[in-house]
Design brief:
about 140 residues; mainly alpha; about 60% helix
Length: about 140
């Protein structure tokens, strides 16, 4: 963001928005299917990047201004919504054979004894206590 702020000072709003989406947001979202953050503080850190960019694009730093309205006016979805959509799309592609990964391969990676499961939907008493904590924060069919 600092690079864009220095080099696009005084530029029109559409150029700033295109630059942000192309150079910054694409980096923030790169491989988000695999690394989607699970801690609130990490999700907030990512959202903060886009919220700062919205203020910069609009040149509106007033504390009374609504960043949510700015994001809406710019047509920028929240990053959490975009990551969720990407996860669902990836799951669809896996289930329908559009990627070189089969549901069985995921199942064997996730839990070799219980197969392809949604850990959030399984009561804690039924989960393997040694594996569930490790898998909770990795990519598995989390489409919440």
């Amino acid at each position: 963001m600092g690079f864009l702020r220095r080099n696009l000072r005084g530029s029109p709003r559409p150029l700033k928005q295109t630059s942000f989406v192309t150079l910054v947001r694409s980096l923030v979202e790169y491989s988000s299917v695999a690394w989607d953050p699970y801690l609130g503080k990490d999700r907030d850190t990512l959202e903060r990047i886009q919220r700062r960019a919205a203020r910069w694009i609009n040149q509106d730093y007033a504390t009374t201004s609504s960043v949510t309205e700015m994001l809406g006016a710019l047509g920028l979805e929240m990053l959490a919504v975009r990551r969720r959509s990407t996860r669902i799309t990836m799951m669809y592609k896996i289930l329908h054979g559009y990627v070189g990964l089969t549901p069985k391969e995921i199942a064997s990676f996730i839990h070799p004894h219980q197969g392809f499961i949604f850990l959030e939907a399984v009561p804690a008493s039924h989960q393997d206590r040694r594996i569930a904590p490790l898998l909770h924060h990795t990519y598995h069919p989390r489409v919440e």
